Amino acid sequence: PVEVKKIVCIGAGYVGGPTCSVIAFKCPHIQVTIVDLNQARIDAWNDPDFNLPIYEPGLVDVVKACRGRNLFFSTEVDKGIAEADLIFVSVNTPTKKSGLGAGFAADLNYIELATRRIAEVSTSSKIVVEKSTVPCRTAESMRTILEANAKPGCNFDILSNPEFLAEGTAIDDLFAPDRVLIGSLQSASGKSACESLANVYANWIPRDRILTVGLWSSELSKLAANAMLAQRISSVNALSAVCEATGANIDEVAYAIGKDSRLGPKFLKASVGFGGSCFQKDILNLVYLCESLHLPAVAKYWHAVVEMNEHQKDRFSKKVVDTMFNTITGKKIAVLGFAFKKDTGDTRESAAITLVNHFRAERAHVSIYDPEVTESTIMLDLTNYGEISAESVQKNVKVAKTAEAACCGSNAVVIATEWDEFKTLDWQKIYDSMDKPAFVFDGRLILDREALIKIGFKVTTIGTGAI
Ligand code: NAD
Ligand code: UDX
Predict the structure, then answer these.
(1) Rounded distance, CA 361 to CA 317, Å?
(2) Over the stretch 237-272, which tens digit does the pLDDT of each residue have?
(3) Among 69, 275, 300, 383, which one is most buried in terms of CB atoms within 10 A?
(4) What tens digit of pLDDT does each residue of 100-152 get?
């Protein structure tokens, strides 16, 4: 196998940035360059004060330790490609907005453009690694494009190496992953390329956690893992509705079923609905794949996971309206948390967006606080990236600088993200500052319900019937 000395990563986003920073950190003998077309993003990665473009616990320390040593961020995509022995393709693969498969299929345009660039500027052989999440058999299309455009003497080995990190815990996940998955063709050169990449990871990951499989299995495993994780949440959220109707408690049910070693305790937290850039996109991608393969029953099965998630968000919004005497028009609602989960500033597909849109449709006044999400990001999300006028959103949405300020004078507080700081707020003080009756809707099951009731709040919690 080739000894990898220079790596380039195309795409300096939530995956490319942390993943390749950790490779640089753990492999001081390898030069790692992360390239992106987005100048502002690269500037932020190079910021002298380390105000990096993404918030991720522990990331700054990793970047501080190796930026300028063996870790570089640049917009010189071609130069990065030309110099590297191994190329990670970590560009975005969003759901297609128009054309064939709109609303379901992955938009592979960024993958294709990056692949064509690799063929165009490479003057030596390369290992090309799919890091982005892609539909099954994308590696084959990449190979066809590379081979059709390669310069004489340039060979390309294509590997699939999907990323399993979760945002908010990315650095811990990358330091000690449950597994690293590498898919390759089972040819001699495919296996040798696989070994080259495995040797990079083996600098810090035990060999028995580096799994090597066929290309298509690797690609499909990524979609399968996300589909099954999301399915667990939709299952627990579906049960939360049964709990609310019967007086059972979803945390107790989750605890009881999680004790079964076949099920395990993790990923059973009921919520306002899952968000994030991956789950919905990857399931829809799987649904599209199944439909293309003439497997409508399989497609329908997985689609139900997304439908249940939509239902959960709608159900929660409706509960807020119902509980507040069937109208929230003109009432002030504080929404605590806007990120799709705690410990990230990422809001892609955040349930909070849907909730606020529902509250706006009912003509409520919404006041939002999130410790990591900026006002400009919130406005981009609520205007649907400029589709709705900012003035119309600003008429009934305010962004507050603290949780207390968001809650002051409100009729209700809605917990949309499970930030730890919400657990230790001075809830008595918040109660005193609110209109009465003061409502709390805990969409993340993080607050002490009994304590809040004692203070005087009317409390509604996901997955908990009236007591
Ligand atoms: P992102 O949008 O944050 O980053 C992608 C970056 O690629 C952008 O900065 C964009 O400018 C850049 N880019 C696009 N085309 C380019 C080109 N031709 N040349 C140079 N740069 C280019 O996306 P992300 O969240 O990092 O996700 C990347 C991939 O990883 C997706 O396929 C996603 O499904 C997958 N993934 C994401 C996560 C996650 O937690 N976000 C986890 C696992 C896998
Ligand atoms: C997910 C996968 O976990 C990760 O392996 C993959 O690489 C990318 O997609 P991510 O979306 O970053 O990671 O975060 P995750 O922790 O999976 O949470 C996704 C959503 O599910 C969040 O909105 C979270 O709040 C929600 N969730 C998670 C629940 O509602 N309940 C749970 O028990 C767990």
Answers:
(1) 11
(2) 999 999 999 999 999 999 999 999 999 999 999 999
(3) 275
(4) 999 999 999 999 999 999 999 999 999 999 999 999 999 999 999 999 999 99
Catalytic residue, from 278, 290, 407, 408: name it.
278
The Å distance, Cα 393 to ligand 1 centre, comes to 29
Ordered by start, the domain boundaries in the chain are: 6-205, 238-461
Atom of ligand 2 nearest to the CA of 170: 12
Residues 369 and 349: their CA atoms lie apart, in Å, by 17
> In the CATH hierarchy, which fold is given to the domain comprising 6-205?
Rossmann fold (3.40.50)
List 365's β-bridge partners, or say none: 332
ipTM of the complex: 0.98
| Cα separation, 394 vs 365, whole angstroms | 10
| One-letter identity of residue 144 | T
- CA 132 / ligand 1 centre spacing (Å): 7
Which residue's CA lies nearest to atom 30 of ligand 1? Answer: 132
Which homologous superfamily is 238-461 in?
A: NAD(P)-binding Rossmann-like Domain (3.40.50.720)
Ligand nearest to the CA of 120: 1
Domains 6-205 and 238-461 belong to one CATH topology: yes
- Concerning whether 278 is annotated as a catalytic residue, the answer is yes
